[in-house]
Amino acid sequence: MTNAPLPPVQLPIVDFGGGLSDPGRHGAIAKAIDDAFRGVGFCYFVNTGVPQALMDRLFAASKRFHALPQERKAALAINEFHRGYMAPNTSLIETSSVAKVTRPNYSESFMHMHEVPENDPRFGSPLNGPNQWPSELPDFRVDVEAYVGALNAFGVALLRVIAIALDLPPDALEPYFKHPTTFLRLLHYPPQPPTADNETFGSAPHTDYGFLTILMQDMSGGLAVRNTDGTWLQATPIPGSYVVNVGDMLARWTNGRWQSTPHLVRNVSGGDRYSCPFFFDPDMDAVIGALPSCVGPNNPPRFPPVRYGDYLMERLNRNYDYRKKAS
Q1: 56, part of any domain
Q2: Distance CA 47, CA 58 (A)
Q3: CB of 159 within 8 A of CB of 112?
Q4: C-alpha distances in Å from residue 90, one per residue of 74, 103, 217, 276, 313
């Protein structure tokens, strides 16, 4: 693998036709998702019904945050509940199954997670605590929460389509998402130095931990996806689209029917790159075992059942500097 630009190859495109309000379209959308996720494990979602104005506001909010002085961002250093600012070179992907990663990611980010009120019984348990907000950007919280609300609603509605795609009753997955575990990560990738070698990444080769990743990226390029034949495909930006991929937990849940595909980021655009992945995952207490439609006499379960929260915490504890220092 080199720093040379990868050829522009488009991933499958799933067109929602304006959203999920028409159940009559769910079957066709489910078929398109199944085809994409049985193959490369990545696709574009277009015409999802998420307002473009919300997407634009979120990008603008991310740029405002990352333009703050470093000391102001550092004052919001990521807390024990995995919320706040992560400085460059503080995330080393030790759990990568596709590469021996030797250097931290050359990126910085702000992490927001699902809101947990103080009177909620979950408050104070792992990953169930307060978000952090920059006081000097009063509109930042408004824009982030508006976007998260829209993406969370889209994720919940999408569960019915995914169930149909997996030959299940439409409501089969909903009990596992009573309290979805969600992450919104506002990423900034500085230009990669011209002298960078093959071990320098904005995000090193990895798979995502959870259920589904819904990524909004700018037009800089740099995201690459490993195809089933081992070649790396460029996830060419499409305006107004999402790049969506299967996470490890969904791959386990489908018993390997759907692929959790390795991917990486190298920002060789010469300018700043911004992306906003939204990770939509099950309840921390959900126990994930192979779905009945994905097993059979000649296809037994490949993985033992696992509590999602235990699986997630093991990976966070290994990959993030702040958690290693706290242990």
Answers
A1: yes
A2: 18
A3: no
A4: 12, 10, 22, 18, 17
Contact 209, 229 (CB under 8 A): no
Q: What is the pLDDT of residue 324?
A: 59
* pLDDT per residue as tens digits for the range 92-112: 444 445 544 445 778 999 999
State the pLDDT at residue 94. Answer: 46
**Residue with structure tokens 């575990």?**
181
Beta-bridged to residue 113, according to DSSP, are 183
By C-alpha distance, which of 179, 164, 59, 163 is closest to 115? 179
Report pLDDT for 2: 43
Span 167-191, pLDDT tens digits: 999 999 999 999 999 999 999 999 8
Query: Is the full-model pTM beyond 0.85?
Result: yes
Q: For the chain, how far is it from start to end, CA to CA, in angstroms?
A: 35
Residue 42, CB half-sphere, CA atoms under 13 Å: how many?
A: 25
Nearest-angstrom CA–CA distance, 245 and 52: 21
DSSP code for 224: E
CA dihedral 193→102→250→219, nearest 10 degrees, is 0
Residue pair 249/311 in contact (Cβ under 8 Å)? The answer is: yes
Provide the CATH number for the domain around residue 246. Answer: 2.60.120.330
User: Which range marks the domain in which residue 227 is found?
Assistant: 8-326
Contact between 131 and 112 (Cβ < 8 Å): yes
Q: Could you tell me if residue 3 is inside a domain?
A: no
Alpha carbons 94 and 262: distance in angstroms, whole number: 14
Does 2 map to a domain?
no
| Contact criterion met (CB below 8 Å) for 108 and 85 | yes
What are the b/e assignments for 58-71, b being 16+ CB within 10 Å? bbebbeebbebeee
Per the structure, the count of domains in the chain is: 1
Main-chain phi, psi angles of 208, to 5 degrees: -85, 155
- d(C-alpha 1, C-alpha 226), whole Å: 12
